[in-house]
Amino acid sequence: MPLPKLSPLQSRLAASLIASAMLVILYFAISWPHFAYAAGVDSIRPEDHNHERLLERPYLDLDHEELDLRGVSYEAEFIGFDRGIIGRATTDPTALINNVAVTTNIPQGQVMSYMFTNASLWANKSPATSGLPSPIQLQGRSFIPYGDDLDTSEEDEDEDEEDEDEQDPELRLRPRQSTTASQRTLYITVTTCTQPSSNTTTELPPQLQLYVSQSQNNTNPGPSQDSGSQTMMELVNGYALYEMNATGDVFMGIYAKNDSTLSGTYNAQIAASIDAPYHYYWNSSDPNLFTVDSDSNAALLFTDPLISNSSNTTLYEEWMDIIPPFQIFASDTDSTSIMGLQNSYCGLQTNAQIVASRAGQTSTQIVTGMTDIGSGTLPKQQFYVTGLSAGKSYNVALAMNGNSTASGDGVVGGGGQVFHMTSFSTLQSDNCAVIYGLSFCDQVAYSVPANPNNFPNMSSLAAYYDNATLYNYGFFEKARAQTPCDTTASAQYSLARNCSDCDAAYKQWLCSVGIPRCTDFSSTLSWLQPRAQGQPFPNGTFLDPATLAYVNNSAALNGSRNASIDQNVVPGPYKEVLPCEDLCYNLVQSCPAALGFECPQPGNIGFNESYGLKPIGGADINGRITNLTCNFPGVVYYLSTGSQALPSHILAIASFLALGSLLI
Ligand SMILES: *[C@@H]1O[C@H](CO)[C@@H](O)[C@H](O)[C@H]1NC(C)=O
Ligand SMILES: *[C@@H]1O[C@H](CO)[C@@H](O)[C@H](O)[C@H]1NC(C)=O
Ligand SMILES: *[C@@H]1O[C@H](CO)[C@@H](O)[C@H](O)[C@H]1NC(C)=O
Ligand SMILES: *[C@@H]1O[C@H](CO)[C@@H](O)[C@H](O)[C@H]1NC(C)=O
Ligand SMILES: *[C@@H]1O[C@H](CO)[C@@H](O)[C@H](O)[C@H]1NC(C)=O
Ligand SMILES: *[C@@H]1O[C@H](CO)[C@@H](O)[C@H](O)[C@H]1NC(C)=O
Ligand SMILES: *[C@@H]1O[C@H](CO)[C@@H](O)[C@H](O)[C@H]1NC(C)=O
Ligand SMILES: *[C@@H]1O[C@H](CO)[C@@H](O)[C@H](O)[C@H]1NC(C)=O
Ligand SMILES: *[C@@H]1O[C@H](CO)[C@@H](O)[C@H](O)[C@H]1NC(C)=O
Ligand SMILES: *[C@@H]1O[C@H](CO)[C@@H](O)[C@H](O)[C@H]1NC(C)=O
Ligand SMILES: *[C@@H]1O[C@H](CO)[C@@H](O)[C@H](O)[C@H]1NC(C)=O
Ligand SMILES: *[C@@H]1O[C@H](CO)[C@@H](O)[C@H](O)[C@H]1NC(C)=O
């Protein structure tokens, strides 16, 4: 068949068209495998050490038989082939890099696909970092499935640095995981940052689902794929950790269920790591955080002790000198903003009403620092949260930003840690206020009688109480100076105690008697002692006259234990958590008899209004007896077992004492 005649111009045009077409074909022929990686690679930061490796090696794991299979699969997606099934992937699998999170919007009813290549899986592990001074130990660890793995992985990192060329460091270093040369532990984590909302129902949105496949036949795992070739894990409160033995390429899908009552999309982070989980939720009932005390607009919270004893002073100092590693997030319990997301660091950060201050810094609402208040002088991190509302409950979760000194891409554990959410309540009335940080009564950290009209802020109120106590301590010092002690052992009033024991016992007693622990007058707990009922509340109102008539002739009920509080603070009616009786017995036992200290006996006049008894009975799941039936400086809670807040021998000694009923 003769070709149509072409003019010279037409010929040139045709030639150039053919050349262009051939160029396009050549381009695709040479470069199509790149498209499988384009999405992920473009978003990689150049400083990530895996970046170059991935750029160099995308062909390394394609030089096998499955090259063709995978090529077809990716090409089909590249040219927009619609597989026409519910829950289909809307994008090519995004390549994940070790310890780099990918944040994605996931529309309802859709699956987002990701992959972690065999090349990344077998790359070198990240070098070991300094870590915290000692691993975090939860007291009530009911289950911490992955906590131990975090520790071992740190050891692994140590070792890996030394012998990176070992043909099989895994086998030797991770005996408990019994990972073999052909498989490696991969930690896949997903956290939800935002979720759809509803204005018709209060039900929480469904949780995202994570699908994982290692089959080259299922490169887009999701709800529509064969369940035999994939594993599904539903997020719990916005978090999932899937720990797997990976052998080659790993394919992942995040699926958002479709719920027509909800509007909006999900936003989630996914990360894969061969080192340790990038995001971490401490799956234990122990929140690692407890409320020391609260008032009507502030709360004081401590972490659990970071070490179990202070016998290693180096370790103690390392913890006390550290830049505070933890943060807290809180929300009013009336608000549902963090519900369903409370195990997710980015979920808390995005949705909590009271957002963590960065380590070492102060925000308008949270002041944080390290403290060793309490029995055993154990390091803890404290949080003083202000700007709260009266008579409210708050949900609160302890968290860590990244590994506490670095966060984000390329950091092992850079996605942050979250502990089990807990809650606290604020007091109703403003005549009790939390104080802490006193210089003399340094163990005082609780709510005390207050009046915002007379002491407008915490520091002025704390300074008042500290000075008043120190002033009274001066009288004791003078009396004690005239009592022989610290001479020779035989001349001492007691073989067991010396003058410094007496000083310490008096100080502890004086601080707790001189700085009463205060709570709402409206509280109905049976062990509380009503005080100052004859005074007006700070807002000027009095209790109703019927109550007043009853208290008129009772000094204990009508005034504070210490008259100077009524004169200077004028708190109005409050209830006192009485000092523990042990404080008085300890004082009598520790000081020379010549000083004349005596304690009222239980059952005798004056005891019930002056001292409280330590609780007997039930404890919560973490061994804490949370009902504080008596107070002493440094009490934070009682442990039913193990370290007792006051040494038990003090109680034993008390029973040998035959004391009068004189009230001190
Ligand atoms: C989600 O459900 C609604 C109503 O049932 C439907 O109109 C919509 O097409 C669904 N979306 C997807 C992505 O399946
Ligand atoms: C956190 O990660 C950074 C970067 O990897 C590292 O330099 C630092 O030592 C780590 N911090 C801790 C407490 O491990
Ligand atoms: C929720 O309320 C907004 C405005 O009040 C409205 O535009 C939206 O359609 C509502 N969504 C649902 C699911 O009812
Ligand atoms: C993948 O599919 C092929 C053909 O259907 C089958 O022969 C092979 O066993 C499958 N592989 C896996 C891992 O399921
Ligand atoms: C915590 O562990 C339990 C038991 O192993 C498991 O059922 C639950 O899903 C886990 N929670 C989270 C948030 O991973
Ligand atoms: C990994 O494989 C080992 C045996 O090779 C097994 O004991 C372990 O449970 C596996 N881990 C997971 C997470 O499947
Ligand atoms: C994965 O990579 C390792 C080391 O490069 C290699 O030995 C192994 O055969 C690869 N596996 C697959 C399934 O490609
Ligand atoms: C202190 O704690 C360490 C480990 O945390 C332990 O080995 C040691 O026995 C403890 N010392 C005392 C006196 O309890
Ligand atoms: C004390 O703690 C330091 C710092 O963590 C550690 O290097 C040292 O080995 C510990 N000493 C003992 C006796 O445990
Ligand atoms: C004054 O304060 C007390 C205690 O907080 C409260 O019970 C009372 O209702 C208040 N009175 C007025 C008029 O606000
Ligand atoms: C606290 O109140 C006192 C007045 O009692 C005032 O002098 C001081 O500046 C206040 N401090 C702060 C931090 O507001
Ligand atoms: C400390 O208390 C004493 C006795 O109440 C008082 O005289 C003195 O002025 C107070 N000092 C300060 C600085 O408040």
From TrEMBL:
Coiled-coil regions listed in the entry: none
Compositionally biased region (Acidic residues): 148-168
Q: Which Pfam families match?
A: Mid1 (PF12929)
GO MF, one example: calcium channel activity
Origin superkingdom: Eukaryota
Q: Name one GO biological process term.
A: calcium ion import across plasma membrane
Report biased composition (Polar residues) as residue ranges.
Answer: 127-140
The UniProt annotation puts the region (Disordered) at 127-180
Q: What is this protein called?
A: Uncharacterized protein
